[in-house]
Amino acid sequence: MPSLKGEYEHSVDNKGRVSFPAKLRKALTPRSQDRFTILRGLENCLYLYPEDRWEKVEEHLSNISDFTREGRMVKRLFLRTAEDLTLDKQNRLALPSKLMEYAGIDGKAVIVGTGDRIEIWSPEEYAIELGKISDEKYQESFERVMTNGES
């Protein structure tokens, strides 16, 4: 299964609709061509999962214990803003207004493929997030993550 990758900037109309990038559509499985789950991200962005990849997230969440306060809290806070979306006939997503407000999206959105999910950012928030990371810090993090901390 191809990964979701690339960075795209699109206009958001006054109804909260944004075009879904054609290059990302090509990476979707036939089953998930137009069905997604969207929710608040862990930074000031939105996470968008194609249906088949969302099912893997739900499977992972089902393994978190409901018998611990931390497990309940993580599930509650992660899932409370989740909504199912479908592309319209013009291949647009209608972003929920509460989620647009949370991410500061107004007029334009940056859509970033991050492997198994898509992040949707306001251009301003995205620039701030990228500005927090120097090239040197990125290189150090990349090496650590890609080698699992091995030398």
Weakly predicted, low-confidence segments: none
Strand content: 25-35%
Structure class: alpha+beta
CATH class: Alpha Beta
Physical arrangement of strands within the biggest beta sheet: 1-7-8-4-3-5
Structure annotation, total helices = 6
Instruction: Indicate the percent of residues in helices.
Output: 25-40%
Could you give the count of β-strands? 8
Structural account:
The strands form 2 sheets. A 6-stranded antiparallel sheet has the order 1-7-8-4-3-5. Strands 2-6 form a two-stranded antiparallel sheet. Helix content is 36%, strand content 27%. The mean pLDDT is 94. It has one domain (4-121): Chemotaxis protein chec. It has 151 residues and is of the alpha+beta class.
Topology readout:
Layout: E1 4-11, E2 17-19, H1 22-25, E3 35-40, E4 46-50, H2 51-62, H3 69-79, E5 83-86, E6 92-94, H4 97-103, E7 108-115, E8 118-121, H5 123-131, H6 135-146
Antiparallel strand pairs: 1-7, 2-6, 3-4, 3-5, 4-8, 7-8
List key phrases describing it.
6 helices; globular; 27% strand; two-stranded antiparallel ribbon; alpha+beta; 151 residues; 6-stranded antiparallel beta sheet; Chemotaxis protein chec
Quick rundown:
Helix content is 36%, strand content 27%. It is an alpha+beta fold and 151 residues long.
